Amino acid sequence: MAERAAPAMMPRRYSRHLLIPEVGLEGQERLLSARVMCVGAGGLGSPVLSYLAAAGLGRIGIVDDDVVDETNLQRQTLFTTADIGRSKVTVAAERLTAMNPHVAVDPFPVRLDASNARDLVRPYDVVIDCTDRFLSRYHINDACVLESKPDIYGSLFRFDGQVTVFNLNDGPCYRCLFPTPPPIDTVPTCAEGGVLGVLAGIVGAFQANEALKAILRIGEPLSGRLLLIEALSGSTREVRYARDATCELCGVEPSIVEVVDVQLEEPPPSDVPELDPDELKSAMDSATLLDVREPHEVVLGTIDGAVHIPSSQLLARMHELDSARTYIVACRLGQQSRWAIRRLEDAGFRKLLHLRNGLLGYAAYDAQLAIF
User: How many other CB atoms sit within 10 Å of the CB of residue 106?
Assistant: First the structure.
């Protein structure tokens, strides 16, 4: 990361900040000298990066190893149709530079993990977690605690969002709130559960606001306060939490002294054979496809001959299935189907197969199947 002098004050560009007593010249100079790392350049990263660049931060780092996909465009406002297939951090850097050429942008086209987290966050003053992966959240949090950086967290699911600030002024960390990861098959992402596009802008704007407050040292930060945003009702509420003295990372006697890989709890092992997506069609000659997606997912596309019982109705409708038949159990991405297989096994079904990577994986082999 090449160093350069902070940009000169530009009174006209930042005049609306200068008029605010709590910001003023001193505050704008703090922004101009601030260094912020944004991990994730997607739905949350788009508004965060846009507002921070417009605010005149001195340096912004962007970490993301992904490329722009058509499904991103519904909520990731930094990108256009012409950007599909391009590196997200490359496009984001171009957009921010066009928006404010006085901001230095450091693009990192890598995935933050246990091996590089501390090195990535170390040069920055504030870290903003705009990811949607539980493993990344633990890596970001652990690196921030070990490097003494505040971690501004946001998350999205369908119509609900969350925002809080970890590790600010000896406040609680992510592990104080979530000591252990959840089971792997209960962790939906935006790709699995969906998200209302505008909610990403709302939550991301809150994250950008918390970053500015931390840099300017104004207001009451959301440290120890989890803000819950409900888009359908237009309401918000807070859940307060405290630093945990027994926390393995920031507690009185920490046992975690380095960023470590976190293992999501695996579901109980199953002997059910796995089918690769390209094997599905031939397997259906002697087996029935059991599609456990929810009704709103099925309307996006299905396969002729499939039996559809949503996972949410499986226990109540299991009597409709014949335990003597062989079923290929499938969902959209391969997680809900694992849950369904365990329920079927508990009920005595033994002739089961599992479609690896779900119907979305199969769609890559069948151009007629429109599943996104």
Answer: 18
